[in-house]
Amino acid sequence: MKKIKYYYNTHTLRYEKLVTPFRVKLLRTFGFISAALVTSALIIWAYTRFFPKATDKEAQLKYEVIQDNYTALAEKTKLLQQQMAELEKRDNEVYRSIFEANPLGDSARTTIIEKKKEIAKVNRIQDDELGNEIAKTLNNISARVVYQFKSYDAIEKLINNQEAKLASIPAIQPVSNKELNRIASGFGMRIHPIYGIAKMHSGLDFTAPQGTPIYATGDGVVSTAEFGTGTGNHVIINHGYGYETEYMHMVRIKARAGQRVKRGEVIGWVGSTGASTGPHCHYEVHINGNPVDPVYFFFNDLNAEQYDRVLKIAATGSAKSFD
């Protein structure tokens, strides 16, 4: 049975029945519902904050694993960057400097277009900054590696070209001279044995019996193989790279114009044709059209002691000039 409440009315001086207005009842009901909702929200927040769901725990564990993997990958990429930088430094400061090639600028390496790669995204992870950052770093290293391979291909071509250049430089004596006694006249001013006047002797005279083989002193192409009034039977070889050699006074020529010859290949035989006073090979070396002392180009068939002896013989001229 519902209790009836009364209150004392001071105006009428009587006890009257207490009646609650509908508006007050409505406000009380609204306040109760609001308090219940706020309390429920606080309970739900506290539960989710301190008691995460299984799916949230799984996502958190995945995120922590990704962070650990990222740390390990970051260390590896840092090491790769250091190794790549060392390769680029060696490329510029060692390999290319050996072959006198221009170093590659850093901009040439970094401006290569990076290919876009898809990065797998972990469920429930909204922030993919770690993945994007490491992908960007790896793409950069990948691009630098590709460009470095291209650079090494270019260096390989330089090496091959250098090998051809080394094989083409005249580097042996034109006749066999194991006893080092065949240089009769050196490079410089000499009294010409026929004309009796001082004249520049632009090569070396190698005395040898007629018929002694004459060898090409470097790889090249025979540009001239003919008889000349003063030079007699002579051969000129264009070695490329600015080098040219000439062999005079042959008794007979073996090489032919246009023929490609190798260092050590027989191109003719010693004689005394042309303006000559005895069997010998007059040998000249030209660089860019200018005659130079051939004695400085015998480094392939002489040791240090022999080379020093040849220098002294060529400087004094052990006998006389034959042409």
Structural notes for this entry:
This protein folds into three domains: 6-50; 56-168; 183-316, Glucose Permease (Domain IIA) (Distorted Sandwich), CATH 2.70.70. The protein contains five helices and 14 strands. It has 323 residues and is α+β, with helices and mostly antiparallel strands. The strands form three sheets. Strands 3, 6, 7, 8, 9, 10, 11, 12, 13 and 14 form a ten-stranded antiparallel sheet that branches. A hairpin with a 3-residue loop joins strand 8 (220-228) and strand 9. Mean pLDDT is 77; it is low at 106-127. Helix 2 packs parallel to helix 4. 22% of the residues are buried. The protein has helices at 22-50, 54-98, 106-110, 129-168, 304-316; strands at 6-9, 14-17, 183-185, 188-191, 198-201, 204-207, 213-215, 220-228, 232-240, 243-253, 260-261, 266-270, 280-287, 290-292. Helices cover 41% and strands 23% of the residues.
